[in-house]
């Protein structure tokens, strides 16, 4: 085993929060129920899927989804013609993802492996890397972003999403969504782990990525409608590219 691979395994082993894994494992069976606590995820999934597809033209692309959970995005990209790998550290959500893909006749490779480890094993093998609603659940998001940058080919594209860290986001994404409207289980998000767009962009650039676009994403809990806009005050997505070698 190379020194790089050993370093990746050590980093991966420490960049895990068991409490975060347990949160989503407890909800795994509800992942594909559009009327469950995952309804907001079902409602925003077509929006984020379209955002990605419009920029990369998914058919024929080799894609890896980091923190795939129960497979909503991974399976959606596969349905659009991409060759998809989904990775997660939760065995329960992965079991649900595998079962749903099998029942739906959709082919997705699902692996229980840290981002840092697969980045050491498959560096530069993917046209597209997605890492959505995951970075705010790990101790070291910058490490995951470095792994994403390592996984994508030169000229390839990377997509991140998270929740901004400010008083408005705290009131809407945590107090409102988790405690008042109960759209999400209480404790799903911790304010200190939320990520400002400037922080994410900085980590992306430090990893050798070029940020192309940052877009806000709003969700109306009463009409169940999601929309993209330029307000990144709460939820947002970021599109980056790994420049071609000069």
TrEMBL record:
TM ranges: none
Source domain of life: Bacteria
Residues annotated as binding S-adenosyl-L-methionine: 48, 67, 88, 132
Family: Belongs to the methyltransferase superfamily. UbiG/COQ3 family.
Molecular-function GO terms, alphabetical: 2-polyprenyl-6-hydroxyphenol methylase activity; 3-demethylubiquinol 3-O-methyltransferase activity
Presence of the UniProt keyword Ligase in the record: no
Encoding gene (name): ubiG
Function as written in the Swiss-Prot or TrEMBL entry: O-methyltransferase that catalyzes the 2 O-methylation steps in the ubiquinone biosynthetic pathway.
Family annotation (Pfam families): Methyltransf_23 (PF13489)
EC numbers for this chain: 2.1.1.222, 2.1.1.64
Pathway participation: Cofactor biosynthesis; ubiquinone biosynthesis
Record's keyword terms, sorted: Methyltransferase, S-adenosyl-L-methionine, Transferase, Ubiquinone biosynthesis
Reaction equation(s) it catalyzes: a 3-(all-trans-polyprenyl)benzene-1,2-diol + S-adenosyl-L-methionine = a 2-methoxy-6-(all-trans-polyprenyl)phenol + S-adenosyl-L-homocysteine + H(+); a 3-demethylubiquinol + S-adenosyl-L-methionine = a ubiquinol + S-adenosyl-L-homocysteine + H(+)
Enzyme class: transferase
SUPFAM superfamilies: S-adenosyl-L-methionine-dependent methyltransferases (SSF53335)
Gene Ontology annotations of biological process type: methylation
Organism: Isoalcanivorax beigongshangi
The name this protein goes by in its record: Ubiquinone biosynthesis O-methyltransferase
């Amino acid at each position: 085993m190379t020194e790089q691979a050993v370093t990746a395994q050590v980093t991966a082993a420490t960049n895990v929060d068991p409490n975060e894994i347990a949160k989503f494992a407890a909800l795994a069976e509800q992942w594909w129920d559009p009327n469950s606590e995952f309804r907001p995820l079902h409602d925003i999934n077509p929006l984020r899927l379209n955002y990605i597809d419009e920029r990369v033209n998914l058919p024929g692309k080799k894609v890896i989804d980091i923190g795939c959970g129960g497979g909503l995005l991974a399976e959606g990209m596969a349905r659009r013609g991409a060759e998809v790998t989904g990775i997660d550290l939760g065995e329960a959500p992965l079991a649900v993802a595998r079962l749903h893909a099998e029942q739906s006749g959709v082919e997705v490779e699902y692996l229980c492996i840290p981002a840092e480890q697969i980045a050491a094993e498959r560096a530069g093998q993917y046209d597209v890397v997605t890492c959505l609603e995951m970075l705010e659940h790990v101790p070291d998001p910058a490490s995951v972003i470095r792994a994403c940058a390592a996984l994508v080919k030169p000229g390839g594209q990377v997509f991140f999403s998270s929740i901004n860290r400010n008083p408005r986001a705290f009131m809407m994404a945590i107090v409102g969504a988790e405690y008042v409207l109960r759209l999400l289980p209480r404790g799903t998000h911790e304010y200190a782990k939320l990520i400002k767009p400037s922080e994410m962009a900085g980590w992306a650039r430090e990893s050798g990525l070029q940020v192309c676009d940052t877009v806000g994403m709003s969700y109306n809990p009463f009409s169940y409608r999601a929309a993209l806009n330029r307000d990144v005050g709460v939820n947002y997505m970021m599109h980056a590219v790994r420049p071609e070698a000069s």
